[in-house]
Amino acid sequence: MQSNSCCPVCRMNGYGFQPLPSYYADNLRAHGWPHGLDNFETLNVAAYTCPNCLSNDRDRLYTLFLERVFSHLDKTQTYTFLEFAPAALFSRWVKSHPFISYRSCDLYMPEADDKADIHALPYADNTYDFILCSHILEHVEDPVKAVSELRRVLKPGGFAIIMAPILLSIDKTYENPAAVTPADRWRHFGQDDHVRIFSKSGFRDTLTRGGVTLSEYPILEMVSEEQAAAYGINKRSVIYLGMKEVVSAAATTSTPEHKTEVLGGVPATSTRPKVSVVIPAYNHEKYVVEAVESVLGQSYQDFELLIMDDGSTDATPQVLRRYAGNPKVKLFLFEKNRGAAYSHNHGIVESRGEYIALLNSDDVWEPNKLAEQVAFLDAHPQIAAVFTPASFIGEQSQPLADHQHHLGRIFDQPNRTRHEWLRFFFVRNALCHPSSLVRRECYEELGLYDPRFGNLPDYEMWIRLCLKHEIHVMPKPLVRFRIRDGEAQASAPSSAGSHRWRLEHKQLAKHYLAIPSIADFNLIFPENAGNRFDDARLIPFYLADLILSQNVNPHTRDFAFETLYDFMASDENRSLVESIHGFQMKNFLNLTGGKPAN
């Protein structure tokens, strides 16, 4: 008797579990089956049945997994659930949840709600959020066709738990059409009504050929080995999920060179989450759990979490797999590294929320981050995005004082109008990217992050945003921004980094050529307000003049020279600035460091 045992189905503690009835071993031995029962992946021979509720090891495994799934669902919605060959105790447990609309089917069981052949189900496409198909495929004529039917009736974003006896001691699935008598089937397949025995690779192949996206959840990624034993579950057990993916723009861009494994996700429902949180991760095995837990632990819970591992070469993907069973989490594992901007964009395209938040995989949110920012955006529809300052932490998550790193209080900024922000952005960025909460329609209007910006993709996005919309900075730090060892005094980039920095600043400045009017230009650059000639053709001239004559941003001098050079190539433009400002070609040469020829 296991004094520490606990049945997930009936919640009875301390009674232990009874072994598999000897009927099976006796028949296998009598018919000469060549394999041992201990070679099955999920079967728990020593602890098979709960003496209180009579649940078997599979019932307990499914209950444990679905408890976690159900705990994250929006209980105001109704979810459809289909079970094949219903097990009385387990089906009663599923139906005990008021947000589940349950139905069962089987070809032979009279107690099933529907008599149905799994090869041709009587249900419409996209009907079910969840399906349990346990120990069916070893009985049917065409398991691939059966899986394709499961996929057909699943809703996009839904999943089917698809399980069968898997024999770990064989390399490929075994079938023998000549084995037709009960005795033959005991000898060949290990039971008198089975028509095949699956190998692990063969079972995976059957599911993928049936068209589902396969995800696997080992029990030891959900609980410890000791907990699995207490639940009477074989520590080798694996949950196999066949998922029906939501078709999206991002999904259609995948190529054989850039494979992506997609795990988990909330089943499709009639409503979308208020917030989508996107975490791009790359080689942050030490920090990513703290980042993810800071999201899952938010006081505000109406969100989905999309995690993008960008081809990490450390253990980050393995660390992240523990979250694949959480329905709030959708995990994307990219085979190759494609850069932070790509990960941001992939997450935004895959997301469904009204608001979108981004978090670096080594940073941490305060528990009320989403609650306070969502409340602010809900109350201020004229604001497109909201930010906060940040506190700073070190390698071990210890707090850092301002003087301990070069960023200091850079994120502590007063609020400004969008024009004032654009003037500020012309010199520097001081918005904390992982503090942002942005309305989805802003990305739909402005586009996604530009992957050509290796250093400044967020900076470039905020310029585009403020050319159209107002933003707001809340006063309280709601992000802990990590400064890793070696970064604390890293105020000067490398030579190559400096060159890249200048090139990207040059591209940032080009956005200012899109300022629509002289009135807007003068609100952004009040030092130009004395130039009241309301002709937008002058904007390139005024912008270049500010940079070259007032040294507004030394990073953009090349941009200013090229802008003025192109501007002065036009006879019309030369006549315009000469008539208004007396600016001639000799002035251009002097301003740009040239010397007029005699």
Automatic annotation (TrEMBL):
Domain Glycosyltransferase 2-like: residue ranges: 276-446
Residues of the Methyltransferase type domain: 115-162
Domain of life of the source: Bacteria
Gene Ontology BP annotations: methylation
Family matches, as InterPro entries: Glyco_trans_2-like, Glycosyltransf_2, Methyltransf_11, Nucleotide-diphossugar_trans, SAM-dependent_MTases_sf
Keyword Methyltransferase applies: yes
Keyword Methyltransferase: yes
A GO MF term: S-adenosylmethionine-dependent methyltransferase activity
Keyword annotations of the record: Methyltransferase, Transferase
Protein name according to UniProt: Glycosyltransferase involved in cell wall biosynthesis/SAM-dependent methyltransferase
UniProt source species: Rhizobium lusitanum
High-level lineage: Bacteria, Pseudomonadati, Pseudomonadota, Alphaproteobacteria, Hyphomicrobiales
